[in-house]
UniProtKB/TrEMBL annotation:
<feature type="binding site">
    <location>
        <position position="70"/>
    </location>
    <ligand>
        <name>FMN</name>
    </ligand>
</feature>
<feature type="domain" description="DUS-like FMN-binding">
    <location>
        <begin position="17"/>
        <end position="324"/>
    </location>
</feature>
<keyword id="KW-0819">tRNA processing</keyword>
<dbReference type="GO" id="GO:0050660">
    <property type="term" value="F:flavin adenine dinucleotide binding"/>
</dbReference>
<dbReference type="InterPro" id="IPR013785">
    <property type="entry name" value="Aldolase_TIM"/>
</dbReference>
<dbReference type="GO" id="GO:0017150">
    <property type="term" value="F:tRNA dihydrouridine synthase activity"/>
</dbReference>
<feature type="binding site">
    <location>
        <position position="141"/>
    </location>
    <ligand>
        <name>FMN</name>
    </ligand>
</feature>
<keyword id="KW-0820">tRNA-binding</keyword>
<feature type="active site" description="Proton donor">
    <location>
        <position position="100"/>
    </location>
</feature>
<keyword id="KW-0285">Flavoprotein</keyword>
<keyword id="KW-0694">RNA-binding</keyword>
<comment type="similarity">
    <text>Belongs to the dus family.</text>
</comment>
<dbReference type="InterPro" id="IPR001269">
    <property type="entry name" value="DUS_fam"/>
</dbReference>
<dbReference type="GO" id="GO:0000049">
    <property type="term" value="F:tRNA binding"/>
</dbReference>
<protein>
    <recommendedName>
        <fullName>tRNA-dihydrouridine synthase</fullName>
        <ecNumber>1.3.1.-</ecNumber>
    </recommendedName>
</protein>
<keyword id="KW-0547">Nucleotide-binding</keyword>
<comment type="function">
    <text>Catalyzes the synthesis of 5,6-dihydrouridine (D), a modified base found in the D-loop of most tRNAs, via the reduction of the C5-C6 double bond in target uridines.</text>
</comment>
Length: 362
């Protein structure tokens, strides 16, 4: 059981926020496969303040709880206003993104680039805490530093300790630097040192929860990270794109059922999830936008099929609901065993584009 302030979550993992992916449709499918908690895509403060489509898109359906609203900005006043809006909209937790490494937001001084601006980052943490009612837990997403210099490490720890001092319920730390982006391995050793250093950290909300992120591709990786680093819970990001079964498999490990944990989804299980995901996306976006959205999901789902390459090529050309059904009827009608996606290949594919973790600058 994981505790964030007054909120209790029954499993030590959650679906991370992924721009362009983790919309309501993806979150519904994840929850139906055992995900206990989800994080939204990072929302920009000034879009929320302006209202309109962005604010409407931030509204939460009743079946999408518990949920964390992730927020990003560069100005303490504006990000505090954005946090207050999320609180009014009923988010269970509000998360401040100080982790996004994408170069295109560097000029905006947002996300992980704020790890080089200690005073501003700490002012943002304070402003958000002041703007949000005490009963709503706050968390922060961080990278282990802006780069590998000693000065960057000092800035990281100053910001990390500010989350504790300002009564945040927890922090999730990605084991790469901002400079690394998504290249090279996530430094789990750093996470182990961090949890050891702050194992007794607490504030007036209770135990300070430390989460880990980076290189989590399978259900076993979730528990390997917990065992090796001592983090309280694990953020599952690219490892769950086109792979909601990772949550079912993680639940199986919690239930001491290794056979189920290692069982790949059958062809018919894959078909059912592909239909369900498209159905949810269709309701959310409409047919043409949903069809375009589901292309990139289909490519990721294809990794579980024995004819993965053929299916990837077929999904690339999907433009309508009829196209989607054509691919399913062609490749997913005959049942049979699927396959577990190759974590190494998954890693390589994830690094092919490193700008999907953060929102479009504006």
């Amino acid at each position: 059981m994981i505790r964030l302030g007054n909120l209790q979550i029954d499993a030590p993992f959650y679906q991370a926020g992924l721009a362009g992916y983790s919309d309501h449709a993806m979150r519904v499918v994840a929850r139906e496969h055992g995900c206990p908690h989800c994080v939204t895509e990072a929302m920009l403060d000034h879009f929320l303040i302006a209202g309109g489509k962005a604010r409407h898109a931030a509204e939460i359906p009743d079946n999408d709880h518990p949920i964390t609203g992730q927020l990003m900005g560069s100005n303490p006043h504006d990000i505090a206003r954005g946090a207050a809006i999320l609180a009014d909209l009923g988010y269970d937790v509000i998360d401040v993104n100080l982790a996004c490494p994408v170069k295109k937001i560097k000029k905006k001084a947002r996300g992980g680039h704020l790890l080089s601006a200690t005073d501003t980052a700490i002012d943002i943490l304070k402003a958000v805490r002041d703007a949000v009612p005490d009963e709503i837990p706050l968390t922060v997403k961080l990278r282990r530093a802006s780069d590998d210099s000693p000065e960057a490490a000092q800035r990281f720890f100053a910001i990390f300790e500010a989350t504790i001092d300002n009564d945040y319920a927890g922090a999730t730390v990605h084991g790469r630097t901002v400079e690394q982006k998504y290249i090279g391995p996530s430094n789990w050793g750093f996470l182990a040192d961090l949890t050891q250093r702050y194992r007794d950290a607490a504030n007036r909300t209770g135990t300070f929860t430390i989460g880990g992120s980076g290189d989590v591709w399978t259900a076993r990786d979730i528990f390997r990270m917990i065992q090796q680093t001592g983090v309280h819970w694990v953020s599952v990001a690219r490892g769950c794109i086109g792979n909601p079964w990772i949550f079912r498999q993680a639940r199986a490990l919690l239930d001491n059922n290794p056979d189920e944990a290692d069982r790949p989804p059958t062809i018919h299980e894959q078909r059912a999830v592909l239909l369900r995901h498209f159905e949810c996306s269709l309701q959310l976006h409409g047919e043409i936008p949903a069809s375009k959205m589901m292309r990139k999901f289909g490519i990721k789902f294809a990794r579980h099929h024995p004819r993965a390459d053929d299916i990837k090529n077929a999904f690339i050309s999907v433009s309508t609901l009829a196209d989607w059904h054509h691919v399913l009827d062609r490749f997913y009608t005959t049942n049979g065993p699927g396959r577990l996606a190759d974590p190494e290949n998954a890693t390589q594919n994830a690094f092919a584009r490193n700008d999907d973790a953060c929102p479009t600058p504006g």
